Amino acid sequence: CMILSVLRHSIPFLATLCTIQMKCGDLYASEMAFARVRQLDKTCIDHMDQYAQLFQRRGAQAELNHLARDLLELDDRRAEAWVCLALYHQTNGDNENAIAFIDKAISLDPRSSFAFRTRGSILLSENRPDQAAKAFFRANDIHRDVANYEGMVDSFLMQEKFKEAICAAKDAISVAPKDPKSLTLVGVALAQTPARREGKERAQKALRKALSLDPLALRPLITLVDIYVRKEDFTAAIDLLKRAIDNVNRTEDHDLLHSKLADVYTHHENYADALTHYHTAVSLNPENYEAQRGLENLEKLMRGLDEHGVDQHEDDYDEEMHGSVSSRDADQVGRGYH
Predict the structure, then answer these.
(1) Which of 228, 225, 292, 286 is nearest to 261 (CA)?
(2) Which residue from 203, 149, 155 is spatially nearest to 181, judged by alpha carbons?
(3) What is the 3-class SS of 253-265, one letter each residue?
(4) Average model confidence (pLDDT) for the chain?
(5) Where is this region: Disordered (predicted)?
(6) Which pLDDT value is given to residue 261?
(7) Which residue of 109, 163, 164, 206 is surrounded by the most CB atoms within 10 Å?
(8) pLDDT score of 196
């Protein structure tokens, strides 16, 4: 008990705990632990760029601005401060300045794997996958990490370099064989690769294994749902999403799940249930633009006003399925990984 009491006030221990919680996908606990570090020592800069990423993932602009200002005032020669500022500008949609500030961070610390990874994420959001892949590769060269492999896989898939994506996913397995994120990458890469039936079956196997290790992980779940829809196994897709809605505790994920369930119902031409779940998604998160778009398309279908006929939603789903490969800054399918 005495040791635990000491550790609760140990800045190095708490900072390490924060990063472990992030890797495990417990983002709320990680953010609370980072806040505890800041409460105990406002001069701590170590790992604060990762704290900034937690704010960026939930669009907390005010918190990012405050943290960036504090870090720059503490020491403007530390890369973490400039990474934080870059994330603030990315959150504001200013990727040009975000890239400039992340390059400043890299110039201050050329061995910052996290800075290179952040650069890759910004470039990926700018639809520049070739340059993004190089940044993720450099991040991984400095420190091998599943998150870096995730960026590489997404970058390769965006360029339709399927062989490279599969190789990167398999490398992730060699680094972290029991990490559900690694298994997910294999499943995602195989699911998106134009291949014979065996490839899709291997993708499902990898995704199911990832879910057995982490039943609440969204990315393998969403990818598996897409595979079921492609097979027209709507019952399996709907059951999987309903179980997730019932069991996922993170309320910030519920709108995505309801939106996805509505997509499946629309594809299955169960428009009444689709309408219910789109409305639920929008009510939970008015900024869920995919749910808004799905709702608009559904209303056209229900009114019979769709100029392309009732099969238009299949084209929409094809486009969405292709886009779901990416982590959407990991943040729609993944909101990170979860």
Answers:
(1) 225
(2) 149
(3) HHHHHHHHHHHHH
(4) 87
(5) 314-338
(6) 97
(7) 206
(8) 66
Tokens of 174: 């060699």
Spell out the SS3 assignment of 32-92. Answer: HHHHHHHHHCCCCCCCHHHHHHHHHHCCCHHHHHHHHHHHHHHCCCCHHHHHHHHHHHHHC
The number of angstroms, rounded, from the C-alpha of 146 to the middle of its chain's C-alpha atoms is 13
Contact 56, 64 (CB under 8 A): yes
Cβ atoms 113, 101 nearer than 8 A: no
- Amino acid of residue 47: H
Residues 255-265 have pLDDT tens digits of: 999 999 999 99
The sign of the dihedral angle between the CA atoms of 108, 110, 114, 117 is positive
Tokens 């019952």 — which residue?
A: 235
d(CA 109, CA 178): 31
- The phi, psi pair for 202, rounded to 5°, reads -65, -35
- Tokens linked to 240: 């999987």
| Cα dihedral: 82, 86, 92, 97 (round 10) | 110
Q: From the CB of residue 61, how many other CB atoms can be counted at a distance below 10 Å? A: 12
What's the distance, Cα to Cα, between the start and end of the chain in Å? 33
For residue 326, the model assigns a pLDDT of 44
Predicted confidence at residue 9, as pLDDT, reads 58
Q: Whole-model pTM?
A: 0.83
Three-point CA angle 82, 131, 51, nearest 5°: 30
pLDDT of residue 272: 93
Please report the pLDDT score of residue 10 as a whole number.
72
Domains, the chain, ranges and CATH? 215-338 (1.25.40.10)
Ranges of the chain with pLDDT below 50: 1-7, 307, 309-310, 321-338
Does residue 127 sit in helix, strand or coil? coil
Q: What is the pLDDT of residues 289-302, one digit of tens each?
A: 899 999 999 998 88
Could you please report the per-residue DSSP string of 225-239? HHHHHHTT-HHHHHH
